[in-house]
């Protein structure tokens, strides 16, 4: 019997969620970067740069960018690992991955790319120095399984970085809710020609584990020294954990 899970505020069969999430990202892929700039007023670029600077990635390292989409983190990691390192761009969604791959090719970077499920990574044990997942974990059906598989592919001493929407500072919540549920779908309709996908975005943020819950989930998956940084009043949080 099929278990149920959430798709935004809706309850759906677990077997249906991946397909529904895929529809969202097939729809928004071509306008994804433009919408990110508009929705965050450019702040997403600062959040991602903070993630890179906090990563501890050095020249020669191997990095896995899970749910890397349009390759924002991949291109920044490439500057850190240099010509002796390696950065894999992965995503479960072919439309998003194509945008990211083409973007890197346009910049003269022929990087390794794989379309794969973040819950079942096609990489060997103990391979990467760093694994990152930015704004992708909340869309995964079995987050605990995804965290365990990210742990598996990390080498001992490696680290996981999870950049994700989180629980905002309570006094800011009313304004944030009004923005999310009223203005965001309107922007999605005008810019991406898709209000429903951005309604899902707002709902999926509310269904994602808060800072402390995700910290516990990472610890349960095996990660040590798990910490997090609240960014922009908790609109986003960066979680970091190590494999020992």
Keywords:
244 residues, alpha/beta, 7-stranded mixed sheet, two-stranded antiparallel ribbon, 9 strands, globular
What's this, in brief?
The protein has helices at residues 14-28, 32-40, 43-54, 72-81, 94-106, 143-153, 173-191, 195-207, 211-220, and strands spanning 4-7, 10-13, 62-66, 86-91, 113-115, 128-134, 154-165, 224-231, 236-242. The protein is α/β, with parallel strands linked by helices and 244 residues long. The strands form two sheets. Strands 5-4-3-6-7-9-8 form a seven-stranded mixed beta sheet, with helices on both faces. It has a two-stranded antiparallel sheet with strand order 1-2.
What does this structure look like?
This protein has 244 residues and is of the alpha/beta class. It is 46% helix and 23% strand. The chain is built from 9 helices and 9 strands. It has helices spanning 14-28, 32-40, 43-54, 72-81, 94-106, 143-153, 173-191, 195-207, 211-220, and strands spanning 4-7, 10-13, 62-66, 86-91, 113-115, 128-134, 154-165, 224-231, 236-242. The strands form 2 sheets. Strands 5-4-3-6-7-9-8 form a 7-stranded mixed β-sheet, with helices on both faces. A two-stranded antiparallel ribbon has the order 1-2. Strand 6 (128-134), helix 6 and strand 7 form a beta-alpha-beta unit. Helix 2 runs antiparallel to helix 7 and helix 7 (173-191) packs antiparallel against helix 8 (195-207). The chain is globular, with a radius of gyration of 17 Å. The model has no long low-confidence stretch (mean pLDDT 94).
